[in-house]
Amino acid sequence: MSGTTMVVIIVLISVGFGVMYDMYKKHLEFKEKTLGVNEKEQELKDEIAALNKRIEVLEKIVTDDGYQLKNEIDQL
């Protein structure tokens, strides 16, 4: 194997590992962004669940016979 061939092979290996390292870094950045989105999505789901519970309580209060009777008395 000649010296020129060895230099070319070393350069190709170096460039190849450099490209693979950059791809790995981009993969890690993407994964980090994805985890951040998933955490935010879970927070929103929890907030929606809490709001749904509050709506259920308000619906129970409004549909309660005592509440409607009080409103009818107040209107008289």
UniProtKB/TrEMBL annotation:
* Spans traversing the lipid bilayer: 6-24
Task: Reply yes or no: does the keyword Membrane apply.
Answer: yes
Keywords (alphabetical) are: Membrane, Transmembrane, Transmembrane helix
Could you tell me what this protein is called? Phage shock protein B
